[in-house]
């Protein structure tokens, strides 16, 4: 560890807590959880900390927005236990998750652009059109069995004609089938597509979802920036430890 930080002034739990709007109990909890290195004790048994502990606390709090509390805590424990490779693996995992989220968002946006020329922005439950399974399958270039599989997975929800029992796809069903088709072509699994289509239905069609996707991209960008900030603070802590 850095000699300057090890031999620096002694800090009380309240000194660490005040600068971050935390309670002294939170500081003790972080130490007990391994997020902070073990504190020294006075002859009377009181905890004393150093600027190195302050650096550890700053690193942890900077990691939380990007990684979440549990992963940030695991990263700090790994560092404090001299298991830097485990800390780096955890960091890589979060970056991989963020990349996967970006790819999913890109796929959805591409699918929306592909649907735009069709004017398929029907409201959920719209019934102005009535398409049968064979017609829709030919339009999409898939087999009717594929549409039936999508129905079982909850991607499309056609009604049944009360007289014939045939599946009837209204405008919203056709929209969902087209979006599912685009996402499947992008390599997404049925279980990944189902919640996205649920968002389309909840939003009231494709147009409202576009603003939601803009907000989604903003959140991903904010998380990426948070990961950078957390990495900077963690690197400073690693250098201080020596």
Automatic annotation (TrEMBL):
Residues 16-50, 133-199 form the HTH merR-type domain. The keyword NAD does not apply. Keywords: DNA-binding. It holds the Pfam family MerR_1. The keyword DNA-binding applies. PANTHER family: HTH MERR-TYPE DOMAIN-CONTAINING PROTEIN, REDOX-CYCLING DRUG-SENSING TRANSCRIPTIONAL ACTIVATOR SOXR. This is MerR family transcriptional regulator. It comes from Streptomyces nojiriensis.
